[in-house]
Give the backbone structure.
Amino acid sequence: MASNMPTTPQSNVTPLWGGSPPSWPSTAVPPGCFSELARLNQCYNEVQMMEMILSKVVCDLATNNVAFQQCLVDAIAKSGSNVPLIGVTNGADAQPGQVGQWVTQYFTGAVTGATNQVVLQSLTLQPGDWDFWCVAQTEGQVNDAQFTLNPTPAGLAGSIYTYLALPGTSAFLTVVSTTCRMLTAVPVLMPFQLTFNSVGAGPGATNYSFTFSARRTR
């Protein structure tokens, strides 16, 4: 007996999902362009928040952490890049490595009064571009006083040799050098040689002081 019920025609189209169509929960919404954009926008907002937090941390370190400040200075110096020079304008001393760093060393010693008495003082200047000068003073009378760098270190521009004599007499002396430049990429030894009474024996024993001062320009 033939049936009069209609039949569903067979389809030769294969579904894109390779099988039965997916069934979505009644409360779920299939993903679409706008839902992906919302996720992308949320991701962007989170990245912005992360950058804000990192900025606060880095600024705090740069302002308050001396070790981090020195790390930045060293990194900039090592790169040799053309960046703004780092220094301070708040009335405080510049940190080591910063423009304006001030270096001073003070030495004292005895002058016996002997003829052509030579004494040596030395210090090490760190890498950089420096302007420097020196002052020698005696607490008593001498015939003359002079100082120089011996041997002359590499990187010295100008001559630090300074000499003051009083022919036929003696006096308390203050000997001030010109300003010289030291440009070096490595620590450099500054071997100062001081000489007193080179023209003859002095009137007697006394003391001297020698002051080295330098300011970093780079």
Summary: The chain is about 20% helix and 30% strand. Residues 59 and 65 are 10 Å apart (CA to CA). The chain has two domains: 39-79, 102-216. Residues 33-64 form the longest helix (32 residues).
